């Protein structure tokens, strides 16, 4: 961005950096310009995502929009929460192996199962 501004004003990038600090209205004007450009791109992306009378909706634009606007529902990576059911460091080897065997046999495929509940704690 700084290089584009320097080229436009025919000055060095260092001058642009100086202007940002020395001219009170320069930095806010740059921000307004960025905000307007972002709004234009946002509107264009939205129009591509939903389509119009002349164009079908663009699937890639839909995915991009949803992944950024609705991350909770549309992200590629899902967060998982694991429930710890027992402190394994206090289990005997036999009890731990039994828990692992039950996990493999319950169809979960991950080798994890809830230990049997002990009624005499």
Keywords, please?
121 residues; mainly alpha; 2 domains; 0% strand; elongated
Give a quick rundown of the structure.
The chain is mainly alpha-helical and 121 residues long. The chain has helices spanning 2-9, 13-22, 26-50, 59-69, 71-74, 93-105.
Protein model, in words:
The protein is mainly α and 121 residues long. The chain folds into 2 domains: 2-74, no CATH class; 80-115, no CATH class. The protein contains 6 helices and no strands. The protein is elongated, with a radius of gyration of 29 Å.
Fold blueprint:
Blueprint: H1 2-9, H2 13-22, H3 26-50, H4 59-69, H5 71-74, H6 93-105
Helix pairs in contact: 1-2, 3-4
Question: What series of H and E elements makes up the topology?
Answer: HHHHHH
Which range does the strand content fall in?
Answer: under 5%
Which structural class do you get from the secondary structure elements? mainly alpha
The parts where pLDDT drops under 50 for at least 5 residues are none
- Gross morphology: elongated
- Number of structural units classed as domains: 2
Task: Estimate the helix proportion, in percent.
Answer: 55-70%
Number of helices: 6
Distance between the termini: 67 Å
Q: Rg to the nearest angstrom?
A: 29 Å
Number of strands: 0
């Amino acid at each position: 961005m700084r290089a584009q501004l320097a080229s436009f004003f025919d000055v060095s990038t260092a001058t642009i950096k100086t202007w940002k600090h020395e001219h009170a209205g320069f930095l806010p004007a740059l921000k307004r310009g960025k905000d307007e450009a972002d709004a234009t791109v946002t509107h264009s992306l939205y129009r591509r995502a939903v389509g119009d009378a002349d164009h079908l909706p663009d699937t890639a634009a839909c995915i991009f929009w949803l992944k950024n606007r609705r991350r909770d529902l549309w992200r590629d990576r899902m967060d998982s929460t694991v429930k710890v059911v027992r402190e394994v460091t206090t289990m005997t080897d036999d009890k731990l192996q039994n828990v692992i065997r039950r996990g493999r046999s319950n169809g979960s495929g991950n080798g994890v199962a809830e230990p049997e509940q002990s009624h005499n704690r």
